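Hi V.,

Quick status before I head out on leave. The structure for the redesign project is tokenized and pasted below; the design run finished overnight.
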């Protein structure tokens, strides 16, 4: 009896794991559009958002969100993560970092419209995140981000970001809208200059003249 009970317990546990795994579905998308300030730091993509949906006993869906910065971009400060949900979120938990809090009401995110789910980070960009995660629950059955999110007329998701090598220049990236919308209003947001063709030839010519001068000196 003990042997049967043991194997029966193991089988039941395995079935539960399989069922939970089967019920969990995930999808992801990138934030590819930046407002004017952030666009000066690179063309992106800037981040990827991954959503994992797990059906809960008694109804509702648990949503786990993981945000990863791409191409050297990091998250920070207020409005660090912004979502426009189709329905209200329940308890928000399992934050991967400290200082993250849920804002109340709907707020405007520079260049990307209003969002009804916004996380703020009290640490600003003094301790930026290259990756962060959290979870919340919603009513009803939701199995993909298209069901979870709704466009606010511009985007359905955004984030407050900066290039890790220049966190003084901050801006927003989203999954919709127009790249570089608005005006650059931060003096720290300067693009890295690349010499044009004429300047490149001048620099190359100067280098060759200098090399020839050194060669003549050693021939004497």
């Amino acid at each position: 009896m003990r042997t049967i009970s043991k194997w029966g317990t193991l089988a039941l546990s395995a079935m539960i794991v399989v069922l939970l795994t089967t019920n969990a579905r995930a999808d992801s998308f990138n934030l590819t559009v930046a407002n004017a300030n952030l666009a000066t730091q690179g063309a992106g993509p800037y981040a990827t958002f991954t959503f994992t949906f797990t059906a809960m006993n008694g109804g509702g869906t648990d949503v786990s969100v993981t945000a990863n910065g791409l191409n050297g971009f990091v998250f920070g400060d207020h409005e660090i993560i912004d979502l426009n949900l189709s329905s209200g979120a329940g308890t928000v938990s399992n934050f991967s970092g400290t200082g993250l809090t849920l804002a109340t009401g709907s707020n405007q995110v520079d260049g990307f419209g209003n969002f009804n789910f916004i996380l703020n980070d009290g640490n600003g960009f003094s301790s930026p995140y290259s990756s962060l995660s959290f979870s919340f629950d919603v009513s009803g059955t939701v199995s993909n981000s298209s069901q979870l999110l709704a466009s606010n007329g511009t985007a359905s998701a955004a984030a407050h970001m900066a290039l890790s090598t220049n966190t003084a220049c901050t801006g927003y990236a989203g999954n919709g809208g127009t790249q570089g919308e608005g005006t650059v209003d931060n003096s720290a947001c300067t693009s890295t200059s690349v010499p044009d063709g004429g300047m490149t030839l001048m620099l190359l010519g100067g280098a060759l003249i200098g090399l020839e001068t050194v060669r003549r000196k050693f021939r004497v």
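Above is the designed sequence. Helices lie at 2-23, 36-39, 145-148, 197-219.

G. will cover questions while I'm gone.

Best,
W.
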